[in-house]
């Protein structure tokens, strides 16, 4: 049947550049496709196709492939032959795996739509899609995304709504072209500080997560739209830190000493540190106190500061003040805090 339909679709003869066979109840792809090497667009939406035929590998000039709403279970290896492909629609299938090498030849792909599938993971090889600008994986079962996804330097739109994401990698800061980030209805508790480096980000939607507080610097993002309904955001009310002052470990004491000496450019330590990569590695994780500006390693008081959202942000109604995470090195500094800063009770 598939072949007959194709013949009928090819009224224009072999020079046909577009084939559309949507909603034809086809259970396989027409293999005579291989006789159409000049094909540019192939629409096979809303059929019952469980597998991509190997003949598709001859379509090296294809720029748009739509296999949305079929019965595919994987992103097949044959994709790698579609070296001219720009847009690939695979939404509404049963995809739960990627064949190895599937992304190898897709150097020109700019749009990948994997919405409404059953994906639980994304392979590191996604980083091979060098030209990708739009990636959409809404309504899947992703628990995480690989940091390699953050190496797609042209990505401007990333949609990950309705998954099971717990966190977003710190490497998100490398997505310098990102303008739109949608993370609606996941299980995200903490946003990475790297998010604050996304200078082109204009639309951020984190509605329906479990975020209480935003990373430092968040208020400087140049957003146009920001939505955060359905998160247990901290509201402005005095919260007092009840945690007792910890006894610092030797590592904490030593690290603080070294980091602060290095800030003051102690010549002896600056020279010595060259010889101790492990020490450099440890102190590279140091953070700065928001009050005194000195460094600490792993012991701090977590506070929240409430700042007004930027006037340029179009925001959700529940957000009057943005709760920002502030870390403070000691009780001494905590007692010198401003009136807008509150300690967070440790439970
Ligand atoms: Zn301090």
Structure description:
The protein has 347 residues and is α/β, with parallel strands linked by helices. The chain has two domains: 2-227, Ribonuclease Inhibitor (Leucine-rich repeat, LRR (right-handed beta-alpha superhelix), Alpha-Beta Horseshoe), CATH 3.80.10; 250-309 and 320-343, no CATH class. Helices cover 11% and strands 16% of the residues. It is built from five helices and 18 strands. The chain has helices at 2-9, 250-263, 267-272, 277-283, 331-334; strands at residues 18-20, 41-43, 64-66, 74-75, 87-89, 97-98, 111-113, 134-136, 157-159, 180-182, 203-205, 225-227, 287-288, 295-296, 301-307, 314-315, 322-328, 341-343. The strands form four sheets. An eleven-stranded parallel beta sheet has the order 1-2-3-5-7-8-9-10-11-12-16, with no helix packed on it. A hairpin with a 6-residue loop joins strand 13 and strand 14 (295-296). The radius of gyration is 26 Å and the shape is elongated. The termini are far apart. Bound molecules: zinc ion. Zinc ion (ZN) binds next to loops.
Q: Secondary-structure blueprint of this entry?
A:
Elements lengths: L1 H8 L8 E3 L20 E3 L20 E3 L7 E2 L11 E3 L7 E2 L12 E3 L20 E3 L20 E3 L20 E3 L20 E3 L19 E3 L22 H14 L3 H6 L4 H7 L3 E2 L6 E2 L4 E7 L6 E2 L6 E7 L2 H4 L6 E3 L4
Parallel strand pairs: 1-2, 2-3, 3-5, 4-6, 5-7, 7-8, 8-9, 9-10, 10-11, 11-12, 12-16
Antiparallel strand pairs: 13-14, 15-17, 15-18
